[in-house]
Amino acid sequence: MSTTLRIAVPNKGSLAGPAAEMLREAGYRQRTNGARDLVLRDPDNNVEFFYLRPRDIAVYVGSGTVDVGVTGRDLLLDSGSPAEEVLALGFGGSTFHFAARPGTAEKVSDFAGLRVATSYAGLLETYLAERGVDAAVIRLDGAVETAVQLGVADVIADVVETGTTLRQAGLEIVGEPILKSEAVLVARADGARPPAVELLLRRLNGVMVAREYVMMDYDIRAERVEEASALTPGLESPTVSPLHREGWVAVRAMVPRAEAQRVMDDLWAIGARAILVTDILACRI
Ligand SMILES: Nc1ncnc2c1ncn2[C@@H]1O[C@H](COP(=O)(O)OP(=O)(O)OP(=O)(O)O)[C@@H](O)[C@H]1O
Ligand SMILES: O=P(O)(O)OC[C@H]1O[C@H](OP(=O)(O)OP(=O)(O)O)[C@H](O)[C@@H]1O
Ligand SMILES: [Mg+2]
């Protein structure tokens, strides 16, 4: 039997719930709601899950003590660990921005000589160094928006999701986004990809495709099938099957979920009927 694959999963914070849900959808065993196990075995899949702080996951993966892990792209870059992103997972999205009181600065080069507070010091130091900006980086653990009010910093660099926290602290975004982040699967940068990792990647990809697409079926007159196929090209090519009713065909294609209603309207307008949309439960593409 091959060696057990070790996977690190966030134990708390905004990535923990969606990460466990995605792994469950991919057919792996996960902790039941509210459980606080630090390790969980999934003998059917020959996998062991380690529930760790999201900030630490890239460090464990980089050291080789676990094979792969789920963390944020921002946390991976901040860690400076020899781990690399192998798959973006489509959840936990956020944008990392500079913010300050109005009138403090307009662009990054204005930060020279100022104090910038953040809980992503590694990421920030690299960013400033790459642009040759000499600012003092103040390392904080969280609630960095308050640092300006308390006089500890002039500027902050932090995750912005809705912008509510910034507004409440009287701050506004300065300059371009520093980084767009989302949850990612990470593996050791120099490591070979064992078959178990390839299998995990295929399963996670399958979950993402099943979430992003729906299956669309409809009937249409044969002479309009080219037009219809242009509206529903599918991933490679739509399936067209003969119907018992003369002059008509049945078409089946995957359609992006977000476009399903518009595509149905367009199909209806060219004479398609019996248009049905169904969820894709799982897939391997
Ligand atoms: N609104 C958000 N606030 C913070 N992090 C977010 C948010 N939305 C997505 N993320 C992502 O979640 C990861 C941070 O997760 P982490 O669990 O460390 O922080 P958290 O969600 O703020 O939890 P906590 O504050 O309880 O430590 C980062 O990759 C970050 O980009
Ligand atoms: O743009 P918003 O929707 O307001 O979200 C962004 C805020 O949410 C997170 O803080 P969190 O609540 O996790 O507290 P923390 O700073 O202590 O981590 C993040 O650090 C920002 O402060
Ligand atoms: Mg937080």
TrEMBL record:
A molecular function annotated in GO for this UniProt entry is: ATP phosphoribosyltransferase activity
What's the EC number here?
A: 2.4.2.17
Stretches assigned to the ATP phosphoribosyltransferase catalytic domain = 53-205
Q: Which InterPro entries match?
A: ATP-PRT_HisG_long, ATP_PRibTrfase_cat, ATP_PRibTrfase_CS, ATP_PRibTrfase_HisG, HisG_C, N-reg_PII-like_a/b, N-reg_PII/ATP_PRibTrfase_C
What is this protein's function?
A: Catalyzes the condensation of ATP and 5-phosphoribose 1-diphosphate to form N'-(5'-phosphoribosyl)-ATP (PR-ATP). Has a crucial role in the pathway because the rate of histidine biosynthesis seems to be controlled primarily by regulation of HisG enzymatic activity.
The family this protein is said to belong to: Belongs to the ATP phosphoribosyltransferase family. Long subfamily.
Protein name in UniProt: ATP phosphoribosyltransferase
Species of provenance: Jiangella asiatica
